[in-house]
Design brief:
two-stranded antiparallel sheet; 36% helix
């Protein structure tokens, strides 16, 4: 939008890539986007965007070049099986790889299907390994679905914090793990 008095108005929303296990957690992806899509620019792969019959190498390249390169934040929806998925690992790694574009901020959101400890904390081993390493280093911040989805201000704040951390805390990034070659079972 532009105005003769103010010039072109810029969109202040951050570009967010949503990483998740497509088979198990599609309903949560849909709910998240319906509730909060107006708060960020969605850079995620949508169901049907990429033919699943393509080779893994080709899919990886499409996701990197067409979606993650332009994202300033990667948000990982963490279900019980997310930690086993090679595409989730690749997406997190790409977001943490300056060579792909620039560093992305990193957020993990624990879905209700992930059991918390009695004190309300989570277990690192429930996270995808690359997200776990970055939560331990202090680069990634982990939230619960119930907390983050209470209102739009929480997800906006989380995305803004992750956006800031990508510059201020880039020294905490841990992208040292080897990439998954296959899904883990």
């Amino acid at each position: 939008m532009s105005s003769p008095f103010f010039g072109a108005m810029q969109d202040k929303r951050h570009k967010n890539f949503l990483s998740y296990y497509h088979y198990d957690d599609e309903a949560y992806r849909g709910a998240f986007e319906r509730a909060f899509n107006h708060l960020f620019i969605n850079k995620s792969v949508r169901p049907g965007n990429i033919d699943p019959d393509n080779s893994s190498v080709y899919v990886k390249r499409l996701v990197l070049e067409g979606y993650i390169t332009d994202a300033s934040v990667v948000t990982v929806l963490v279900g019980p099986n997310t930690k086993k998925r090679k595409h989730v690992d690749w997406e997190i790694s790409a977001g943490l790889n300056k060579k792909v574009g620039r560093y992305s901020g990193l957020i993990g959101i624990l879905l209700p299907s992930v059991s918390l400890l009695p004190n309300g904390n989570y277990r690192y081993e429930d996270l995808p390994p690359r997200l776990e390493a970055n939560a331990k280093s202090g680069y990634a911040i982990i939230y619960t679905w119930s907390w983050i989805t209470q209102d739009g201000a929480r997800i906006s704040d989380a995305i803004n914090q992750a956006f800031q951390r990508r510059v201020v805390n880039s020294n905490l990034i841990d992208n040292s793990l080897p990439l998954f070659a296959n899904n883990r079972f």
